Amino acid sequence: MPSLDQLLKESERIEPVPQVVHELMDLVEDPEVPVSEITNLILYEPVVTANLLKIANSAAFGLKKKVNSVHDAVVRLGLKQVVKIVLMASVTKPMKSAHQGYGLEEGRLWKQSVSCALIANAIAEKVETSEKNIVFTAALLKDIGVIVLDRYMAPAIGKIREVINAEGLHLIEAERRVLGLDHAELGGRIAGNWNFSQTLIRAIQQHHLTGETTDISETTAMIYLADSLCSISGINGELFCGPDTHYNRICKQLGLSETDLNRMMSEFYSRKDDIYGLLAIL
Predict the structure, then answer these.
(1) CA 244/CA 63 separation, integer angstroms
(2) Per its UniProt entry, which superkingdom is the organism in (predicted)?
(3) Do the beta carbons of residue 102 and residue 146 sit within 8 Å?
């Protein structure tokens, strides 16, 4: 098994999140920033613009009139929605592949990542957090370490499953035991190399809550809950569906009832086919 530094070197083959996304995430939270400043950032990024228009015109958004420019997209979808679209498009390529070491067929990692991000976003809206973009981004990127670790999982999968079944461990606990490193920790380090904030890095690293859990941040709690809902609903791959030890506690911390969560999941499932249809577009 390579060292952490070697794995981080391998992660350089993953196309990083474009700098424009970092700038957009900073600007969109400032109500004083004019729309023109934000649209101009995207205008000079041809690939980002193309992906934005393709997604905005897809069935997932159901717009009756075609979106023909970045300005149209911002006006009709809103700045925060545009930032989410740009981010989803930027991480699609590495997530579309099959990750056989983890038992994920082609497109499955993308589906579980985007699903978690959208459900986390719904939770963030309900909770009315001020960190909606961080929650969405961390939920989308929480399993980015899987892309690098996948090749090392194949020869270790028998031992991983044995440890999980014998001791009732979560996947990342089994990864640490067998591989010496888990995908959440590695994902956080990759996010650090991409110059993301410490808040986002910690949320990626801690989203399974398998370590010290006496003080769980609101951001991490929302991502944990969204991931748990993906596991309960069968969206996540088998290996990712570990014990939801903190589910009830997190619901209480966030002030969410089962009725709230059922409503969110019902809304998600009403749009699921259109959302997954984006995979064919990108």
Answers:
(1) 38
(2) Bacteria
(3) yes
